[in-house]
Here is the input.
Amino acid sequence: CLIWWCAAVMAMRAVASALCVAVLCVHVCVGDYSTIAKQIMAEAISSTNFTKIEYMCDTFGHRYVGSVGHYAAIDWMHDTMIEEKFDYVYQQPVDGIINWVRGNEFAEMLSPRQYSMNILGLGNSVGTPHDGIKAEILVVSSWDDLANKSSLARGKIVVYNVPYTVYHDTVQYRAYGASNAAKYGAVAALVRSIASFSLQSPHTGSLNYLPNITQIPSAAITIEDAEMFARFQSRGQRVVLSLFMEAKTYAPISSSNLIAQVNGSSMADQIVLISGHLDSWDVGQGAMDDGGGMFSAWEAVRLLNVLIKSGQIPRPRRSIRAVLWTNEENGARGAKTYNSTYWSDLPNHVVAMESDTGNFDPNGFGFTGPQALLSVVQQAAALLAPIGTGNITSGSTDGLDTDNGMLYPTVPCMTLETNGYYASPPTDLMTALYFFYHHSHADTITALHYDGLPRSVAPYPPSNYVYPGSPNRPVAG
Here is the structure.
């Protein structure tokens, strides 16, 4: 049952304009791991408990970088990892983090009636003047619609009423809506929340200001309000809003990534990385985004550590490293710092895995990497079929910290995929459960799916055990 895998992994590195080519050769016998994989998955399903994630979210609240809860949670996680007797625990310093603070904020419709709105300022947004902004609105439904109505935008608050389709498409309006409205003289931008469902709940997230364009304040509003404003405009009714935001960016601050490792045996310098991000936005508890993903990574490596040290399974050849990233939500400084710190060692990272798509109904992994490696990953994934997570999708990953330019293309990347992240079928938004809660006050422990979380932990240990178990060593050219 031997499967031979030889894949060329090429990474362009802008270091003295040199090209570094990594050639990865791995020999895997999937059948050899069938029994041990079943043992590990059964243990993960039966022994995963929720004490740690419940304690963390309830005790420290959200973990937005710069908050008291953020640093207290990191200290608690670090101390807990020490108590769990990993082979290696490290609190990696991360500097230069954007220090954006929301402050007080409110919005009110003044005409055609008085109405107090639910809003959440967007991360990195500037604030309004001290006395706020009072202006008529202009509702648009797309970039083309904005361009067609550009002559009407000056002095207005542009409202983007763009229905949710999939996150990667719709989020562009949150990211660039302010700058594109400012190009035409708008004084502020309000963005329909990037959400598949709403109960008058705004959903925050970062915006990106384009260079050489006036920076105007921007906030997320509810789906209900965006649709109401569109109806007002279609009837020819003039809508006037008052907007106030104290948002401000201060001097950069510091935080930490957390690293916990189970050392390998004969090839301990080779790394299989599994990860989630430890920070959250400044609303809710960050239980789903990304408490569940972070916990899955941590728990998977903890489980392997227990099984190895109790003699139930042998130590893998390669080391297995859990990395809990900081500052994913507003700058990804954690992943960038890891990349720069371990730059020369990245060719020794066999694969980087991440969970940041919720824990509703995991079905497999998205994969980004060489095609030759994909075939081996797909065969190894057969071990995960008993728990329904054996599906491997090429080119489909949602891990900002791993594959989005941070570790990929030097390191092949995989992301846990769940049925609750994408609508299925695409028109049935009620199945996109992740975006009911994402970046909102509703992201609390109550949003976690307690059946899905053990199944989110279970795929990682056997996957991480198979990859470290292959005997051939990657050779860096």
Summary: The radius of gyration is 23 Å. DSSP finds twelve helices and 19 strands in the chain. The chain has a mean pLDDT of 89.
